[in-house]
Amino acid sequence: SGFSTQVSPRKTMYRFIISTKQKEECSMRLELHKVHIKGLAFADTTHVKDGVLYVNKAEAEALIAEDRNFKEVSIDFACPGDKTRIIPVKDAVEPRVKMGKGNYFPGFMAPMGKAGEGQTLVLDGAAVITCGPIVAFQEGFIDMSGPGAPYTPFSETYNVVLSVVPVDDLEKHLYETSLREAGLKLAVYLAKCADEQGAKADEVTVFEKGDTFEESQKYPDLPKVIYVCMNITQGLLHDTYLYAADLRPSLPTLIHPNEVLDGAMVSGNCVSGCDKNTTWHHCHNPIVQALYARHGKEINFLGMVPTQESTILAGKLRASQLNLSIAQQLGADGVIVSEEGYGNPDTDLCLNAKNFEKAGIKAVLVSDESAGTDGASQSLADATPELDAFISTGNVNEMIEVPAMDKVIGYPEQIALLSGGAAESLRPDGSMYVELQSIIASTAEIGFNKLGCEWV
Q: E strands, 56-117, where?
């Protein structure tokens, strides 16, 4: 089809030209070539062999030390079952690279381009964990063993821990930027070396789906569903990035689900550790994968909408109204909404529920709860009667005692500054008594955790 104009002295006439030629398919195909990582070791060259990720420590540290905002850079390992604590954790990144291209994360470690297509090498089971002196009060910790370990997925990954100390008097936003990009840089370096050394995939996972028009033609009788992913976008070290652009001043937008599974979204926030969606979480988004698994069978999965959580009411109203507008334009019958954070974002959550339900679009919401240490307090900071389908990912205020570890990577005294911790949390013997919200991803609101609720 096309569009043309004809201009005369008296008037302008617009004429649509409709072609009988069938629309070309716009299918996106993403292949994740997963190399299963089952161990870590230092070596003279960075490569993967027999499931072990070998790292050239000096080379990797020198790569990160190129950023002159760091005065100290060190790399260490933390493996499942180790009696190791990492504190404070800022982000987690899965080592990935576009095969044969040596880059990833468009706009950060790769030229700007569309994610979600082609072949991506994934060091599955490995993670780069960034750590350093506190930026704000909202990082968390990871225990690789003990009672705190089951609450975080990163007790089960083989972690290359990047610890950096900033130069004196470095402004906090510059430090956050440098450390965020250092984690991405190290992750791409590890995967690139593996790719160049000929690492072979143990498993290939394929995600393929056409555009909304094409899929609606294929499945006219299936209910149309979209996924609205709420993101911390509040400034002051509370940011999320889409194609390297801060979502805070943006407007909600529709993307193909392959894009988020292929590095289009990057975490830049220092939100409470329990419900921080790390960069690793975005690439593994379980809601996207669950909807994908049902696409063409139970539902027609139209796509994903990354949306904002503003600090002002006008921003909350704007985002929730535009989320609804996108859903209506696509003809959605249902929507899944996941929150990030708690407190004032609870109002965004309720506005989304209210708008969708009043428009006749069924909404299911996913969030954690801040219900007090006894679980008896109001779970959300806001409420609306239209919120009638709610999935809980756990109570952030639940208390847990974690024992001392043989090894601590980072700064254990920083527990005094973390959400869910206090000065008295750290005991002389190294054990801690804390809220779940101080553990990274313990109540992740996209569902990548082991907590939930059931009616009794």
A: 70-78, 84-93, 96-98
Which of 131, 193, 229, 270 is catalytic? The answer is: 270
Residue 98, beta-bridge partner list: 120
Task: Collect all residues with Cβ–Cβ distance below 8 Å to 381 and sequence separation of at least 6.
Answer: 342, 343, 344, 346, 347, 370
**Alpha helix stretches (DSSP H) within 71-117:** none
Do residues 205 and 36 make contact, with C-beta atoms less than 8 angstroms apart?
no
**Which of 212, 162, 169, 210 lies closest to 185, judged by CA?**
162
- pLDDT tens-digit readout, 272-291: 899 999 999 999 999 999 99
How would you classify the pairing of strands 407-410 and 84-93?
parallel
3-state secondary structure (DSSP) of residue 310: coil
Residue 1, classed as helix, strand or coil, is: coil
Mean pLDDT along residues 178-203: 97
> How distant, in Å, are the alpha carbons of 209, 247, 297, 400 from that of 337?
21, 17, 21, 29
Segment 61-71 mean pLDDT: 97
| Rounded Cα–Cα distance for residues 158 and 75 (Å) | 13
In 222-278, which residue ranges form alpha helices assigned H by DSSP? 257-260
- Pick from 141, 166, 127: which is nearest to 90 by CA? 141
Rounded to two decimals, the pTM is 0.92
Q: What is the mean pLDDT of residues 337-341?
A: 95
Concatenating the DSSP letter of every residue in 86-97 gives EEEEEEEE--EE
79 is catalytic: no
Two tokens, residue 259: 């894009």
The amino acid at residue 388 is D
Tens digit of pLDDT for each residue in 71-116? 999 999 999 999 999 999 999 999 999 999 999 999 999 999 999 9
- Spatial separation of the C-alpha atoms in residues 272 and 444, rounded to whole Å: 10
